[in-house]
Design brief:
Length: 327
């Protein structure tokens, strides 16, 4: 029985018909997937290693086929082995948006990312994507209670605090479900956008795509867990997104309405991401994500400050501050 390293080597040797290739780690991932850069005859490719007992390649392949047919810049698939959990992909390079973004290039790079996002949103779903349902949106927000408040802070919520969180989730759900529904990448941020010389950006990590609220991916992009931008910069890009969206869809959505969707979606997403970052630490032994919790909490607190309807939720966040600082 081959171990995983041997399986990789043998499958690649069978594919290339020789063993004249090098294999090196290409990037880390929050899931069980691993990525390796394969060099053979001066050609660079990416091996996705998705152990079949933990990961299923079906969704990645299905979404990739839809996106590439719609001329979205995603990796091509050159070879696959479903049984063993291997894909051989085109190499979009090693430069993430996060590596290069600065005050001088950010506006241009983000506008290109928004243009690609708008194109992604109009991709025909030849195979219908899973719905970003009320149940899924709700369950994601509950990760905050379980993994951040419970596992990370070690705090037991009283009945009133549990009620506040329930009512907050229900209020946020209303805004999520009333939005136009489109294809949602679900993790459209600076670590999943690759800087490319042509057709920038290259887009990766799209296998969890769903059909859901149209502001979600823009929130992922502009309220990024890994980099923070000034409010006026974000407002300008939201205006850019909405202007282009209205042109494409011959719609007349107002900026005021859109910003309500954007801000409330920010709260939904970061209740989820804070919970996931803690789960990655406590369940999966991936602790680096804890470093990004202060930024995501800051986004959440800012939304809570904006809305009178979130007054009690804001009080709850404030009451947790001593325990957060002690971590």
């Amino acid at each position: 029985m081959f171990n995983r390293q041997s399986q990789r080597q043998h499958w690649l040797a069978d594919h290339f018909g020789h063993r004249n290739f090098t294999l090196a780690p290409a990037s880390a991932d929050a899931s069980f997937r691993q990525y390796f850069r394969v060099i053979s005859n001066d050609r660079s490719l990416i091996l996705m290693d998705a152990p079949p007992e933990q990961e299923d390649l079906t969704a990645f392949i299905r979404v990739q086929q839809m996106l590439i047919k719609h001329h979205i810049h995603v990796p091509e698939i050159f070879a696959k082995n479903h049984e063993q959990g291997f894909l051989l992909l085109s190499d979009l390079g090693s430069t993430q948006y996060l590596d290069v973004l600065d005050d001088n290039n950010a506006m241009a790079l983000y506008q290109q990312a928004i243009d690609s996002l708008l194109k992604l949103q109009t991709t025909p779903q030849t195979t219908p994507l899973p719905k970003y349902s009320q149940a899924l949106l709700h369950d994601e927000m509950c990760l905050f209670d379980e993994w951040f408040i419970g596992a990370h802070l070690g705090y037991d919520l009283n009945d009133k605090q549990q009620r506040v969180l329930r009512e907050t989730r229900q209020w946020l759900l209303g805004y999520a479900l009333e939005q136009p529904q489109v294809m949602v990448h679900r993790d459209y941020h600076s670590r999943n956008l690759m800087l490319t010389e042509e057709n920038n950006p290259g887009i990766i990590d799209f296998q969890d795509a769903v059909h859901g609220p149209f502001s979600y991916d823009l929130v992922s992009l502009l309220k990024d867990c890994y980099i923070c931008w000034p409010d006026d910069f974000i407002d300008a890009l939201c205006d850019y997104f909405l202007t282009q969206y209205n042109k494409i869809h011959h719609d007349t959505l107002t900026l005021k309405q859109f910003m309500n969707w954007f801000h409330t979606m920010t709260a939904q997403r970061h209740l989820k991401t804070i919970g996931i970052f803690c789960r990655l630490h406590y369940r999966d032994d991936k602790s680096n994500y804890l470093n990004d919790i202060p930024r995501t909490l800051g986004y959440l607190k800012k939304v809570a400050d904006m809305y009178p309807e979130l007054y009690e939720f804001n009080q709850l966040l404030t009451s947790l501050q001593p325990k957060i600082k002690a971590r």
